[in-house]
Amino acid sequence: MTKYFDGSIAQLEEKVASGLSDYRFQHILRVRDYAIKLATENGVDADKAEVAALVHDYAKERPDADFLSVIRAMNMDPDLTHWGNYIWHGIVGAEMIKSELGITDLEILDAVREHTTGGASEMTKLSQVLFMADYLEVGRDFPGVKVARELTNQSLSAGVRYQIVHTVQRLVQKETRIYPKSITTYNYWLDKV
Predict the structure, then answer these.
(1) Nearest to 95 by CA among 108, 84, 83, 79
(2) What is the CATH number of the domain that holds 43?
(3) Tens of pLDDT along 83-122?
(4) N or C: less crowded end of the chain, CB within 10 Å?
(5) Is 3 within the bounds of a domain?
């Protein structure tokens, strides 16, 4: 039994893996390992970080209809219907995790909600750990990843700032819509560190 899931970590892994491709599940395991490392280095509950990391992409490969159904059933912000899986799997996925896996810890659910958009002053250390672990897990290989890892090793908040600045820059260069919370996150973290 874990403190945050009614079962063992092995049982949680099995439930998560059952709804995902092996590719996605292997990513989740790498995020889990990185999250435990960052949690340990930053005074965050490593058990909580492990559970959050194991479930962060729980809904990633669900069809759009599943997300739209939850948005309507839970009376979530109707603007969510204008976005896609890259936003839904965190924000709406947290509701699926709560109802389907029975994980009710608010800090874990908020970390899942924020793992793609980030957060401003409300972003807990656990959310920061998950945000960075998803970005930096050892399978990631993008321009700047080594710099991001070095910054994060020095300061978790410096890593968060680096990620949101570079993510927003990339989205602007692609001329794609940016989810409002990502802009709020950017504005908050720009002056941090």
Answers:
(1) 108
(2) 1.10.3210.10
(3) 999 999 999 999 999 999 999 999 999 999 999 999 999 9
(4) N
(5) no
Share of the chain above pLDDT 70, in %: 99
Tally of domains within the chain: 1
State CA 43 to chain mean position distance: 19
Report how far residue 107's alpha carbon sits from residue 116's, in angstroms, rounded to the nearest whole number. 15
pLDDT score for 2: 82
Q: What is the CA radius of gyration of the chain?
A: 16
- Look up residue 165 and give its two tokens: 């600045």
Of residues 116, 114, 121, 111, the one with CA closest to residue 191: 121
**Residue 60 CA from chain centroid, whole number:** 11
Q: What pLDDT shows up at residue 1?
A: 63
pLDDT of residue 133: 98
**Tokens for 132?**
């960075």
Average pLDDT over residues 18-38: 98
